[in-house]
Amino acid sequence: MEPYIIGETAYNHEGDFEYLKRMITDIAEIGLHAVKFHLLLEPCSCFQKKHPLAEGIKKWLFRKEQWDDLIQFSYENNLDVIALCDDMESIEFINERHKDIKAIELHASSLNEYYMLKEVINFRNQIILGIGGSTLDEIEYAVNFLKKNGKNDILLMYGFQAYPTNYKDINLSKMMKMKDLFNLPIGYADHTAFDDENNIDISVLAAAMGFAILEKHYTPDLGVKRVDYHAAVGKEQMTAIKKKMELYLNVFGDGSTSMSKSETIYGNTGPMKKAVVAKKNIYKGEKLSFDNLCFKRTEEESTISQKDFKSLIGLEVLSDIKEDEIIDFTRVKYHFNKATYLDLTGGLEEKK
Known about the structure:
Blueprint: E1 4-10, H1 17-30, E2 34-39, H2 53-56, H3 64-76, E3 80-85, H4 88-97, E4 103-106, H5 114-120, E5 126-130, H6 136-148, E6 154-158, H7 167-170, H8 173-182, E7 186-190, H9 199-208, E8 213-217, H10 235-252, H11 261-266, E9 275-278, E10 293-296, H12 341-345, H13 348-351
Parallel strand pairs: 1-2, 1-8, 2-3, 3-4, 4-5, 5-6, 6-7, 7-8
Antiparallel strand pairs: 9-10
Helix pairs in contact: 1-3, 4-5, 9-10
């Protein structure tokens, strides 16, 4: 299983166009798979006029033409683009001019917002639903709304922002229940504080549980007090997260019950699993018995598995077999029992 890591830029750029391009370049160089932008075109569609952010956030915003350039720049850096749309106008913009991006995400604050849900169903690709701080009823409402309108490519993004993060509040085991309840893929959006000594380990724990999608805030300037810096990691941390996530997912595997090539080799009868061998010298014409057979690990492989041991009992030896030699069916007289007509009919003819 391969990881899919999303580099979240949020508003860490603070409206600096070149700074955001630098973030995109870094995210690509680290080898992440996607970049996530917060799109907001009309603050009055998102905030009350008296809201503390209503005016201040305007200096962090980009024009449509700038977003065109940033999305194209992301493509040139071989990154998928995910747009977290904070207003209706942003969704309309994506549907009109960038309908081929990887996904549109609805923040948990808009999870049940009718107008945004109605507009997002016009998007052709994946819909990501931020479900942090949301009840099961709220999640179910959004999922059902999308599915009833023909949208089935849905990803649930689990995680919420809290500074400092209380480990007990993360509750990763809840992701397993969400997966079973909604039968949808789930990603983990980690918001552990950048200076938490356990940041890297907490970021990848969901991967150890088999969740391959991680969303993580990134900043080129670790610890510098910019917008959304609290949970944003730098290049070194993000690289370590990527490497460890790959390791955890490799160890987790794909859940297949069939044996891998390595398991098959390891499980061979003889070198690993004990083989049936002669307990003592057995001579031509003798019959195999519980007294002259035993199990031992051998250098060479055996064609008889341990569970077939009893099928050897009572068979006549064709040639002398020395103590410790492997026993197989080439060394004995073996007769296959022929099936009768009654065997094939299950005794039905006899019952007549």
